[in-house]
Amino acid sequence: MYSLRQGGLPEGMLMSDSWVSSLIEFLKKIDNKEAKAVIEAIILSAIHGVKDKRISISEVEIIIFNLDILLFCKESLRDPRLSLIISYGMELDSIHELVGNPEIANACQEIEEILQSRKSISWSDL
């Protein structure tokens, strides 16, 4: 399996809180519309990486599917759709443990469909 550390990130960068902190600090400095687009691009890349087995579920949880990003989407962006996607992504490891690889591909596909549908989701849907 491909590891992001092989892709040129400094040793320890990915596995520390500094990655998420740096990402959130960056997202806070840009317009909300642009921040949403950055998060969507990271999600899409992460999902494709998991489906292609180039990145592990643990790594995508560190990169994007984590509580810090979820709180940012809820509190700063106030975006229920991205919040739903992030919370679903946070469950990928549990899905993998309970039912295995075939369902991971289905879960990734479902996340991708929600992301690409642009369907409006309200807080009451969560």
Supply the helix-strand structural class: mainly alpha
Overall pLDDT score: 84
- Helix fraction bin: 55-70%
Q: Please state the CA-atom Rg, rounded to the nearest Å.
A: 14 Å
Largest sheet: none
How many separate structural domains?
1
Strand content: under 5%
User: What is the number of helices?
Assistant: 7
Element pattern in H and E: HHHHHHH
Tally of strands: 0
Shape by Cα distribution: globular
Between the first and last Cα atoms, what is the distance in angstroms?
A: 34 Å
Low-confidence stretches: 1-10
Overview of this structure, please?
With 126 residues, the chain is an all-alpha fold. It has one domain (4-125). Helix content is 67%, strand content 0%. The protein has seven helices and no strands. It has helices spanning 17-29, 32-51, 57-63, 67-76, 80-89, 92-99, 101-117. α1 (17-29) runs parallel beside α4, α4 runs antiparallel to α5 and α6 packs antiparallel against α7 (101-117). The longest helix is centred in the first third of the chain and has 20 residues, at 32-51. The relative contact order is 0.14. Mean pLDDT is 84; it is low at 1-10.
Give a brief description.
The chain is mostly helical.
Strand and helix map with partners:
Layout: H1 17-29, H2 32-51, H3 57-63, H4 67-76, H5 80-89, H6 92-99, H7 101-117
Organism: Lusitaniella coriacea LEGE 07157
Protein name: DUF3969 family protein
